[in-house]
Amino acid sequence: MTACHESAxxxxxxxxxxxxxxxxxTQACLSAIASHDESIGxxxxxxxxxxxxxxxxxxxxxxxxxxxxxxxxxxVALKDLLVTSDQPTTCASRMLDGWLPPYDADCVQRLRxxxxxxxxKTNMDEFAMGSTTENSAFGPTRxxxxxxxxxxxxxxxxxxxxxxxxxxxxxxSDTGGSIRQPASFCGIVGLKPTYGRVSRYxxxxxxxxxxxxxxxxxxxxxxxxxxxxLAGHDPKDATSLDTPVPLYTEQLDQxxxxxxxxxxxxxxxxxxxxxxxxxxxxxxxxYRSLGAVVQEIDMQHARFAVACYYLIACSEASSNxxxxxxxxxxxxxxxxxxxxxxxxDSRGDAFGTExxxxxMLGTYALSAGYYDAYYKKAQKVRRLIxxxxxxxxxxxxxxxxxxxxxxxxxxxxxxxDPLEMYLADIYTIxxxxxxxxxxxxxxxxxxxxRPIGLQLLGNSLAEHTLLRAAAMYExxxxxxxxxxxxxxxxxx
Amino acid sequence: xxxxxxxxxxxxHLQLQTRTKIFCGCxxxxxxxxxxxxxxxxxxxxxxxLPVLNRLALELSVRAxxxxxxxxxxxxxxxxxxxxxxxxxKAYQISQFDIPFCQGGHLDVDILQDNGDTLTRKIxxxxxxxxxxxxxxxxxxxxxxxxxxxxxxxxxxxLLEIVTEPDIRSAAEAHRFLEELKLLMVYLGxxxxxxxxxSLRCDANVNLEVTNTDGDRVRTPIVEIKNLNSFRGVEAxxxxxxxxxxxxxxxxHSDYPDHSKQTRGWDADRSITxxxxxxxxxxxxxxxxxxxxxxxxxxxxxxxxxxxxxxxxPTARRKRFHEQLxxxxxxxxxxxxxxxxxxxxxxAAADQCGDAKRTANWVTQDVQRILNEGNLExxxxxxxxxxLAELITRINTGQLTTQTARLVFAALVENEGGEGSVSERIExxxxxxxxxxxxxxxxxxxxxxxxIANNSQAADDFRNGKDAAIGKLIGEVMRELxxxxxKTVRDALMxxxxx
Lengths: 492, 499
Description:
Chain A contains 15 helices and 13 strands. By secondary structure, chain A is an alpha/beta fold.
């Protein structure tokens, strides 16, 4: 177990009391990455020297008694679609291979101001399109728990980095479950905040109305601390919410009295793995033992969620990715025959299969004569789904469900069947359609040692409730304490 | 057979005079000499960058919409218009598709008829919407096939698109519409409408309704003319196209192989339109609401605030100058065309001195000449409206002659006359140069006698009936008394020599 296997609060305590330094932590992370990331594939770029310089300067300031940010000295891994002015940003695509952005994402700026050590950029599905991180142009990420299985996606690299002890904290993005599902596959905590809670400025867009940046960490407290830094209004993002940010760590250790948990009978559907079903069942028992009330809720339009989601997400993606045309930056073919050929060949060369598939789906859905039947109708269904949630949260505080129908799947399983991959998003995508927050927390393991997560969804801007509800469960269980036995070889 | 009827509709793009661009903080300034310096991640369309609406751009647009008598939407939104072009870095333009901020409206245009009458034509508008401008592609014009370059300084400039109904009936009318629209927008402070700098651009749609040999009214295919970069060009291109379409109609006996809309370019050097590959070939713009920008609501107060910012339209003002201030239609037009600063200057001066006609002459001639010679704006002139009014008053009360007033005016422009108020400065210049008009015979008497004595030959000639001889005497007096009114001097001499 490396130093970076500890939780954020433990490490902050060690830093504050001089039992470790930012440099020591950073070096421990770098050395763990150097030893083990070849088999996991969590990072696309490791900012070794630069990270050490930042760590040293934080240590110097600490020694000098200067004020430090709230996460001073903690290494943080960034999903490679957050633009960074001092590290390349590729979105795991050949299209942006080697692109060095001239600016920092708003959340990156906040992390720098919090004195985090930005240790590297993590692997993902190309442009965040996928659920396994196998759609990366630079190879897949494996869950550290089972190297023959995927880390989940699209924030697979960030989830695997935390699980493997490469960094105590990571930032991901979630368009349809891309933080929560890999968190589940890798046995860590991941939170997708309310749409607009974290600025999207500098997040390379997949589907603008669904994308949301969120924290990933070893335990609920770590995630609360990271969210505290990420959240807040940003005038550079017109969809950013201008509402006060509560203190997420406050009262985190106090259980919610009479917590009302909703469960949706549509969630217990065909294709749900028996061990996952049992895990959720057990988790609900834990909550009941803490005085929570579990009740069924009605999600009338849930069955339309997958179709609705893929129409909206692909439509927006087809537009957002049009800018990668080889003209201003990114990949351009050599000696194209003409302008149109430059566009089509550059894009044809550099985009992967899944990205092309979604661009084509979205282009089709927005085309003249199809717009009303697809995109416009999907937007109406989206409204109905959001209304279902608003109604449900009148009678429950959180909604519990699996994160994914199965634990981490073997490599290659879902890439062969895109439709099955899309359907596997069923538990997570509704939260993005409704814009509400959701969290995934470790809740058990399959019999063959693959982590299983529990998802809790909350009302808009109820991150604090979600975190407290998650912390209640965490205190009663020790799933979050399980560590990957990296040093003894990684197969169970 | 009735004459063919011309049907013209215009699509005008105006760059707004905002300090910054529409969706980012970059400067909105014409700057072709330093390409790509007025750019940031947002207007470069870099991955991750997001647009934020410059509310001022919308406010200026609303003001323009109100001045055009359009109805302003209280709810409007932003849509992405998607197409690939190198000057469009996001591969979509943020525009307004189905809910423009302004619908309907009209612009009334006075057309001077051949018989001298003025006909007012009401040109209705379909809509006005706001969008972002694209950058500019710069191609190698040497013919050596060098790389094209792209300047994105212009990308993200707020752009107003005004679309007329096909209400325009001639090329000259189109020209007049553009002039009137330009004046209105300049007066409102919405746009400088500088065609050379591309802040006003125009496409024209034109076709004809012609009677065929069966006596049926038939329409020729609509042609959209692009690349029109001057008002004169718009008129010439439309005139060319009207003739061409009529010719084509007769040649094909109104049996067109393809009746769909065509795009033609205007070649200003050869004065012809030429067929272009239409973008219609590939135009499914796949409009959809931009998820990065929340819809905009405009409250009644927001709209009322812009309504309060409206000024008198140039048309109304021109009419008032003619009808209330008694200027000729020509003088009124010339003043209005000089722009709002000049019109304000004129009006302030005319108001103070009470002589609009003389003020108009001064402003359109003396003032304008000095401005042109010095390449100055009227606000930079050393003489404000108050000073001009003062000079005109002095002329009208006989204290200065028109000629001496011009000298005083020139001196004022050169900042002479000290530091005081403009009246004090005028007083100072008049005294210093001895320009005061002399009209009381008391001060003239001794000088007249002296001049007559010194020029006895001329005086005698005049006494003996040689009228021209008085010129020399007047000249001598005037040389001594520069502020004298020649008529007064002549009358006084006459009284002395031919009592």
